[in-house]
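Revision sheet: structure tokens.
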Amino acid sequence: MGFKSFVTKLALRSKGVSKDKAEEITKKLDKNPEIAESLKALEGNKEVKELFEKITKEIEAKKKTGLDEQYAAVLVMGKYKTEIMKHREALEPLMGLMKK
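Predicted:
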């Protein structure tokens, strides 16, 4: 495992991604470096970045009330479904990483 893969796994784990999922995502990124470039482009998309910051804050707020993280995520993502669909093309690389 290279240093880049190691750091990627650490970053994913620090964001709450399971060990197995972090390993899977890291392998996909290693095999397809163009995915990482697509993800970097997402970071430059102000609308998408603001949307996901808003989603993250709302999920965290729901977790603080005692809601399970997955349930909180489902609720919040459902609330923003329309905006997420608006950016589906830009989000495709990210969604591809999250699929099994």
